[in-house]
Amino acid sequence: MMIFFGIASLLPWNAVLTSLDFFEGKMHEYHPSSVFGFAVNGLLIFTSIWTMIYGNKYPFVWRISGGYVIIAALMIVLPLVTNALSPGKAFAADIAILLIFGVFGGIV
Predict the structure, then answer these.
(1) Over residues 20-47, mean pLDDT
(2) Where do runs of H (alpha helix) occur along the chain?
(3) Which are the contacts of 28, defined by CB distance < 8 A and separation ≥ 6?
(4) pTM of the prediction?
(5) Nearest to 75 by CA among 28, 24, 8
(6) Model confidence pLDDT, tens digit, residues 53-104
């Protein structure tokens, strides 16, 4: 179980971390390298605590498989949104997506 938690909490951040040069190139005036880490890990902490307390009420299969499916979909959507929108709107959309990353990383 702890392996799944480790993968779920590190996978979104590592996906963003490896492509940080792409985000810096698209939104250099917003300095995503200094903000994205807080966006991913901010809600992950609170969601992990909530999952430790209330997670046993929900089936493991639903939490793990559902969380991974949503995380995988968001990893695909994140660069596409960044490419499609203007830098200001892309930055706001990316922060929203990264907050969702953190929530589902903590749920898994």
Answers:
(1) 88
(2) 2-18, 20-26, 32-54, 60-84, 87-107
(3) none
(4) 0.86
(5) 8
(6) 998 888 888 888 888 899 889 989 999 999 999 999 999 999 999 999 889 8
Q: Which of 8, 10, 11, 28 is nearest to 20 (CA)?
A: 28
DSSP 19: T
Nearest residue to 16 (alpha-carbon basis) of 102, 88, 92, 106: 102
In the block, which residue shows the tokens 């949104």?
A: 81
Long-range contacts of 71-79 (CB under 8 A, 24+ apart): 71/8, 71/11, 71/12, 71/101, 71/104, 71/105, 71/108, 74/12, 74/100, 74/101, 74/104, 75/11, 75/12, 75/15, 78/15, 78/16, 79/19, 79/22
- Amino acid, single-letter form, for residue 33: S
Instruction: Tell me which amino acid residue 86 is.
Output: S
